[in-house]
Amino acid sequence: MQMKSINTLQNFVLMRQKDYTDRLRSTEQDRDSIEHEVGLFVKTCRERIDFLTAMIEKEEIVGHPRWFSGRAGSSGNADMVAHQHGVVLILSERLHSVTALFDRFRAARFQEAIEKSMPRWRKGEKSKKSNTWADNQEHGKEEASIVQDLKQDLLEEETHALQVELTNLLDTAQETERKMIEMSALNHLFSTHVLHQAQQIEKLYQQALDATENVEKGNKEIRKAIGRSNSSRTFLLLFLFVLPLALLFLHWYN
């Protein structure tokens, strides 16, 4: 059931890849909606995996796994617990691979946002300089002082417009950088949690294997003890049977 949910998440991410990475196919609001849906999906899958892990640990202490119906001995329970730990480990790794795939798409989106916010003032500056030159040529015939004033005013306007655009660009870049840092921190935290969870599951899986081996050794010792008990019982019965015969023979002989 959990693997089916993770596969559904992966199919959703791949299906919406072009809509998310291509800004011509969708708006920023649509992208935010896709990112929100993926985040909710990942959170739900993570909570279900944590719930399964907690349930396995609880049932391992009680000693009665409930994932499958039927009864089994101690060796069967240990094998079942080891199998369950392996399943949870596979689910965690599968979910981590899907989140890593979407993180690559999200990084591409932020890179595109940074490139989109690059200044476009050079083209406008070139056009303004061309118009200024034509105006200077036309008004230069009339009066040189007026041309100088116009050039100075135009230069001040261009400088102010450039300062405003650069300020806006800096604010956009800082905001994008802040979001990237937050996303990187969240991704690192999630990756660390998944790695720690996988290490715990591997440790529990190894403990379950050791418990299975101990149970098998115990069963062998029990069978050996039963065999020795049967041998002792046979010898005792034989002794009790021979002793009366010997006594009767001695009594008859006397």
TrEMBL record:
Gene Ontology annotations of biological process type: protein transport; retrograde vesicle-mediated transport, Golgi to endoplasmic reticulum
Keywords (A to Z) from UniProt: Coiled coil, Membrane, Protein transport, Transmembrane, Transmembrane helix, Transport
Transmembrane segments annotated in the record for this chain: 234-253
GO CC aspect terms: endoplasmic reticulum; SNARE complex
Compartments reported by the entry: Membrane
Membrane topology category: Single-pass type IV membrane protein
Signal peptide: none
Disordered, as annotated region: 120-142
Family: Belongs to the syntaxin family.
Protein name: Syntaxin-81
Taxon lineage: Eukaryota, Viridiplantae, Streptophyta, Embryophyta, Tracheophyta
